[in-house]
Amino acid sequence: MLNIALPKGRLGEKVYSIFDSLGYGCPEINGDNRKLIFRNEENGVCYFWAKPSDVAIYVERGVADIGVAGKDLLLEYSPDVYELFDLNVGKCRMSVAGIKGSRPADDTTLRVATKFPNITKKYFRKQNREIEIIKLNGSIEIAPLLGLSDVIVDIVETGTTLRENNLEPYKDIIDISARLIANKANYKFKNGEIERLLSKMRESTAGKEC
Predict the structure, then answer these.
(1) How many CB atoms lie within 10 A of CB 175?
(2) Model confidence over 43-91: pLDDT tens digits?
(3) Which of 94, 105, 119, 198 is the most exposed place for a label (fewest CB within 10 A)?
(4) What is the domain range of residue 21?
(5) Quick check: 134 and 113 in contact, CB under 8 A?
């Protein structure tokens, strides 16, 4: 039995459809209910929904054998897990953005609003830029509009939210997508099951690229 942590929301639904297409389906998961844990003994899987930022914690702690987490969260929190496969879904990018047509002066301490302080620190350290991080959890885009920050570092998917708020990306930091991760100890104990799943994922991806 493979215990699999999936992120709640659209990404999790996309990811589950991948598992389902590879023969790891659990019909109960599509039912109209509020259950969080779903088992299919026949296919040897147990799924559970988790907050996206918590998936890596469940995997790191061994509650889940494998799970799916965004590359942004893996970079931000650096969980002690194996990163096995890029699922090529949930694509977006981490970007520095600010008010359209405006660029902060280079000789001042840059105020940066973000949900991702660790990624932000690492990026600007490489740029040799002195920054002040303003950690926010809600709508990051509003910070430069209200003068709270000079720029933001956030995930950009289509750029629509930025454009609608008179903001624009200044610099892309890194491309983001969903990754299959595994608990290090459980990967050894369940290596056969996990490798079979990985093999099917690789074959499926190769078939789409041909």
Answers:
(1) 11
(2) 999 999 999 999 999 999 999 999 999 999 999 999 999 999 999 999 9
(3) 105
(4) 2-90+177-209
(5) yes
